Amino acid sequence: MELYNNIEKIREQFPALTQRVNNRELVYFDNGATAQKPVGVINLLNEMNSGVNGNIHRAVHELSARSTILYEGARDAVKLFINAGDRGEIIFTSGTTASINLVANSYTSTFINKGDIILLTEAEHHSNLVPWQMACSRSGAELRFLPVDEQGNWRMDLLDELLDKRVKLVSAAHISNVLGIINPVKQLIDKAHSAGAKVLIDGAQGIVHTEVDVKELDCDFYVFSGHKLYGPTGTGILYGKRNLLEEMVPWMGGGDMVGSVSLEKFSFAELPLKFEAGTPNFIGAAALGEAIKFVKSIDKGFAEKHEKEIISFITRELSKIDGIRMYGLGENKISLFSFNIEGIHPSDLAILLNKMGVAVRSGMMCCEPLMSRYGVTGMVRASLAVYNTMKEAEIFIESIKRGVRMLS
Ligand code: PMP
What we know:
Bound molecules: 4'-deoxy-4'-aminopyridoxal-5'-phosphate
Distance between the termini: 52 Å
Structural class: alpha/beta
CATH topology of the largest domain: Aspartate Aminotransferase, domain 2
Oligomer: single chain
Number of helices: 15
CATH superfamily of the largest domain: Type I PLP-dependent aspartate aminotransferase-like (Major domain)
Mean pLDDT: 97
CATH class of the largest domain: Alpha Beta
């Protein structure tokens, strides 16, 4: 297969990138929230919606058979992509949030009891916090938090002390959506396992910016969304180790997740269907397979070099701005930059950037406790993807300087 090592060729695959916003060429730097879709994904969505639309698994007719092949083919693609042991370990969900809620319900109802502890970090997205708060109020378990330092790095020096015998589960982001640091997840997983705890990794950002090998990581669960990985919204993955998924009781019942059903009782279907009650987003899931094809078509060496150049340019230029405070500093960073500029409200700056065609995120970014940790009520965040260019990075920096002049 020919690999793409040319930014123009990559961009050609993304029709959304050619649009103008507020009469300017769009600079889309909100990829941490959702990424644009390549033509392969768009075409498959169109093809299935306009033709290959038969409900999966259920019927003997041609459309159902074709949908089922595409859906199950995407499951195989995900399995290979993250190097899972078998296809039964790949559960389709509607996204990271749904995957975490599935574990927070099914795993905790089977394995977590009153007095147990679930360890998170203080930098988690609300989606990796609130489901555990809910699970604790149901089970009587308690939460404990690994702090981050001023730079945004996990306080690994505190981990041994926090990981006592009461900790049964650890759940943490591979890469925080605010800090952009690639966290030492392998170290966390190994230490948690030595202490007898299981580990869920929230890979919503990690799957996009690192190569994930769940066997090598040895995580018990790894979850991510399709829409940040150039795939459709409403798609996501829960990877879980087979032995755990086998023992977990599903939290949703319905069609497709059953073996046999009588008026009084039912038996579970085999994995993975046991956790896929009802009609899933089979068209979206199939298109997630196309998104993975796209990701695999990028020359990794090229993408890494390109990302590093942009990171060093933006870091250098941002740090020259008077009164800037950047969050998430370190060597092991992705192209995601969160910051505040003294005296300027993050949303005011984001509104001005939008007027200049530059799309960034502002606000709490679904991480209110982390905002409190830094004593702020919001930040500006620019998050880049593989299709963003150095020219866009320059426009971004110039636009910030202009915005700051207008707001000062
Ligand atoms: N965790 C992290 C680290 C994220 O960045 C996000 C999305 N911003 C989520 C969880 C939630 O993902 P989704 O909304 O796609 O379920």
